[in-house]
Amino acid sequence: MAWVIWLVIGAALIVAEMFTLTFYLLWLGIGALVAALFAWIFPDWLLVQAVAGSVTALALTVLTKPLARRVRASRGYKDAIDDLVGKQGLVTEDIHVGKMGIVKVGSESWSATSTEPLVKGEPVIVVHRGNAVLQVEKWGRL
Question: Taking every annotated instance into account, which residue ranges of this chain make up the domain NfeD-like C-terminal (predicted)?
Fold first, then answer.
């Protein structure tokens, strides 16, 4: 039955990845799915399951970074997330200085920070983007 637990953990991590877009949870989720496969084949070898999952997650983390860097450096590559800078959004969860909130830009929700407190419902403009966090300012300030 350990394979079911690994499968649930893997699915939960992959779903969580959809909210963070960092790929780290995706690699951990795939590692948990590999552990589920090993648990199905070797149900009593918990150590083998954990090692197989850990090695898979570590290999994916280490091996995909240079590949991603090479793709981003290639000519003609344009990250769709860069298009968010300059777009208008709406605060959906209050943003306090030094603490993240949530903004909606287009049809997507993003974690966001700001140098000033912003309350739910305020229009904002995206001034910078990190990997999964946007920096926003009050709309009309620029």
Answer: 82-138
**What tokens does 64 get?**
């995909």
Helix axes 24-41, 2-20, angle to 10 degrees: 170
The residue ranges of DSSP E strands in the chain, in sequence order, are 88-93, 101-105, 108-113, 123-129, 133-138
Whole-number pLDDT of residue 55: 96
- Neighbouring CB atoms inside 10 A of 8's CB total 12
C-alpha separations of 121 from 8, 18, 93, 100, 138 in Å: 36, 24, 8, 15, 11
Among residues 34, 43, 42, the alpha carbon closest in space to that of 13 is found at 34
The count of C-alpha atoms lying within 13 angstroms of the C-alpha of 59, restricted to the half-sphere facing its C-beta, is 9
pTM of the model: 0.54
Is the distance from CB of 93 to CB of 106 less than 8 angstroms?
no
Residue pair 91/137 in contact by the 8 Å Cβ criterion:
no
